[in-house]
Amino acid sequence: MKIRAIATLLFILFSISAFGQGRAKISGYIRDADGNPLDLVNIRVKNTLNGTMSNEKGHYSLSVATGDSVTLIYSCLGYNKAERILPLVTKDMRLNVQMNYTSLELGEVVATAIRKQTTTLETLNADRVKLLPDPAGGSIESLVVTFAGVTSNNELSSQYSVRGGSYDENIVYVNGLEVFRPLLIRSGQQEGLSFINPDMTEAVNFSAGGFEARYGDKMSSVLDITYKKPKGFEGSASASLLGANAYVGSSSGKFTQVTGFRYKTGRSLLKTTDTDAEYDPNFIDLQTYMTYQFAPKWEINFLGNLAINNYKFIPHTRETSFGTATNAKKFKVFMSGQERDKFETLFGALTLKHNLNENTELGLQASAFTSKEEEGYDIAGDYWLGDAAEEGGGEIENLSIARYNEHARNRLHSNIMNVGHYGITRMKNNTLKWGATVQLEKINDKISEWEKRDSAGYSLPQGGGNVNVIANLFSDNELESTRISGYLQDVFKFRTKQGLFTLVGGVRGSYWSYNKEFIFSPRASIGFIPNFDQNLTFRLASGLYYQSPFYKELRTTVQDEHGNSIIQLNKNLKSQRSIHVIAGGDYTFRASGRNFKVSADMYYKKLDNLNPYTVDNVKIRYYGENCAEGHAMGLDVKFFGEFVPGTDSWISFSLMKAEQSIRGSEYVPMPNSQGYNVSLFFQDYFPGYKRVKLNLKGVLSGGLPVTAPRTGYEDGYFRTPTYKRVDLGFSYQLAGGTDAIMDRGFFRNLKNIWLGLDIFNLFDIKNTSSYYWITNIDNHQYAIPNYLTGRQLNVRLIVDF
Fold it and tell me: Phi and psi dihedrals of 387, rounded to 5?
C-alpha cells in the first residue's frame, strides 16, 4: 500500500513538472539549391518521435520544449540529409533551411534524383520544348502527347485525347484561370498556335484522370500552367522556316513582367501534302503577364492575350494514290475557288492577391474572353477515281467521274466573362483550398454551308427533276447563360510507422441557368510512400466527374419540311457523367549511377448520360442528346529516367478499350479509342561534347474508328491505318557559357546561341488524318484518305539573353 502511494505521488510530481515546462514553435521554409520550395520534407527532433512535414510551399512548423538543446533532422528522398543544432530554445524561432541534391558527378554532367509523385498530377519541365522538333511550331502539348494515356494523330494540331476521351474533355488552366479555344476550327492546319506560350512558362502540371476538386467539370484531364515571375532581365529570340518567337522578361523590385510574341506560318510544311495549292497561313500571338506588389501583403497581376489566325487556301490540283498492291486506286481532282478563314481571340484577366499571413492567401479573379470566328469557302472541282494497274500505274477502270461544289459562310461570336474568389490556408498537416466563380456566356452562331455533287451528269441525290444538294447545314442561334461553381478541398499529410500518407479529398458543385442543372462532384485520392522502401510510391484515386455542356454539345440537327438540315439547341441536354477509379504507383531506382522511374496506372471509367459525337480531322459533331452509355479501361506505363547522363527521356506505353452503346445498340468503339499507343521522347548529346544535342520524338498509335458522313458509329465503321511518326532534331551551341567570344562587344549581352536542324516525319510515312467521301451514280461511297504532312527539313536559330 505504501509503495503504491509513493508511485502515485511520483507520477503526480512528474506530470506537474511536465505540464509546467514551456513550449516554443520552430518554423521556417525549406528550399532546394535553386531556391524552389520543397514539400514532403520530413523534419523531426533527434532521438524523439516529435516531427512534421513541409507543405507544398516548403513551410513547416513544430513545437518543442523550451530550455534544452534541440537537434533537428531534415530528410527528403533525393536530397542530402541536413542537421541543425539549436543550443538553447527559449522562445518561438524562425529557421530556414536549404537542402542540396544528392548528386553524382560525371565529368560535366550532374545527375539528380527524381522527386516523388503522390497524386495523379505529374510535373513537366517546360524547358525541354525549346529544342524539341515540333511541326506545330513549339508547344507544351507536343510533349504532353508523349505521356502515358495521351494520344494525338495529327501533328498539325495541339489537341489531344486522354484515355479515349474527346478533345473537349480536357481542361487547360493558365495561372489558375481556364482558357478557351475557337469553336469553328475543323482541321489542324487552321489551328495556329496553342494558347500556352512555352517561353513564358515556369511550371507545368498534368493529370490524365482522378484530378482534384479545385479543377473544373471535365471528364478526362487537366493541364495546369504557371507563367514566370522573372527575377531579373531575361529573354530569347528564335526564327525558323515555320515562323519566329521572341520574349522579354524583367524585374524591378515590386514590378515584374514577361511578354512574348509568336508568329507561325506552315506554308512550307503544308506543301508536302497531296494537294497542290497556294497556302497562306499566318498566325500571330501576343501575350503578357505582369505583377505588381503595391504593399507588403498585396499583389495584383494581369494576364493578356491577343491571337489573330488567318488561313487562306487556293487549291489547284490533288492526286492521291491509296489502297493495296492488288487493289490500288488513284484519285485526281482539278479545283478552283478558295477558302478564307479568320479566327480572332482576345483574353484578359486580373488577379488581386492578399497574403493574410505566412500560411493564408486570398484572391479575387476576373477575366474576359472574346472570340470572332469567320469561315468561308467556295471550292469547285472535277474529280476522277479509278483503278490503277499494278505495274506502270496504268488506268484500268473508271469508278467515278464527277463534279462537286462546296460552299460555306459561317460566323460565330462568343463572349465569356467570369469573376471569382479563391483561398488557401495551411495548417500543421493540412492545406485547405476553396473557391467560387460566376461565369456569364453569350454566343451568336450563324452557319450556312452546302455541298453539291454531279456524277456523270446527274445531281446527287436524284430527286424529281430538281437540282438537289447532297448535304447542307444551317444555323441561326443565340445563347446567353450563367454558370455558378464552387469547390472545397483539403490536402492532409501525415506519417505513421508504416510510411507517409497524402490524402486529398474535396467536393465541387455547379449550376447552369440554361438547362437548370445542378451537379455535385466528390473526388478523393490517397498516396502512400512506405517506410520499408521509400523508392516505392502507391496511389489510388476516385471521383465523380461531369462534362458540363458547352455550346457545341447543345447543337442537334433536325430536318425541316424541305429536307434542309437545321441546327437547334437542346435545352434539355444534361451533363455527361464519368466515375473514375485509378490505381497506380512508381518505383524509382538507380542503375549505372543514374536515376530512373517506372510508373504504372490502371484505370476504369464508367460512363453514362453520354452525348455521342463523330470526329472528322479535329472537327467534333455531337448528337446533341444524352443517348449513350459506355466505359473505358486500360493500362498506362511510363519508363522515365537518365538514359543518357544528365538528360531526361521517357518511353510511354498504353493499352486501352473505350466503348459505348448508342440508343441501346451493341457496344462500338468510341471515336478516340485507339487500342494502343507507344510514344518516345529521347535526349542525347555527343560524349564529352555537350554542344551538340539530339532530341527525338516518336509516336506509334492504333487506328481510329471512322464512319461515313451523316451516320454514326453504330451504323458501321472501319479504322484508319496505324499512325506512325518520328521527328528528329539536332542542335549545335554556336556560343555560350565560358566561351571567350561571350565577353566581347555585343555578345556580352547574350547567354547562348543555338543553331538547329529538324527533320519532320523522318521516314516520310503517309498518315491519314481523315477521309474525303465521294459517291458514284449508283450511290456507292468511296473513302479517299486525306494524308498528313510528309518529310520536311526545318532550320532554327535561337538566341538567349
Answer: -75, 150
Q: What is the pTM of this model?
A: 0.85
Tally Cβ neighbours within 10 Å of residue 750.
15
Contact between 446 and 410 (Cβ < 8 Å): yes
* Sign of CA pseudo-dihedral 774, 779, 782, 788: positive
The answer to whether the beta carbons of residues 389 and 410 sit under 8 Å apart is no
Cβ count near 432 (within 10 Å)? 16
∠ at Cα 324 (318, 328), nearest 5°? 50
Cβ atoms within 10 Å, residue 10? 10
Decide: 272 and 791 in contact? Cβ < 8 Å. yes
Outline where 131-187 has alpha helix (H): 141-144
Long-range contacts of 620-623 (CB under 8 A, 24+ apart): 620/166, 620/167, 620/168, 620/552, 622/552, 622/553, 622/555, 622/556, 623/556, 623/662, 623/712
pLDDT tens for residues 622-669?
A: 999 999 999 999 999 999 988 888 788 999 999 999 999 999 999 999
d(CA 357, CA 430): 16
CA 619 to chain centre: 18
Q: What is the pLDDT of residue 372?
A: 96
Q: Which whole-number Å values give the CA distances from 311 to 357, 489, 551, 660, 791, in the listed order? A: 51, 44, 24, 36, 22
- Mean pLDDT lowest for which of 12-26, 224-238, 359-373? 12-26
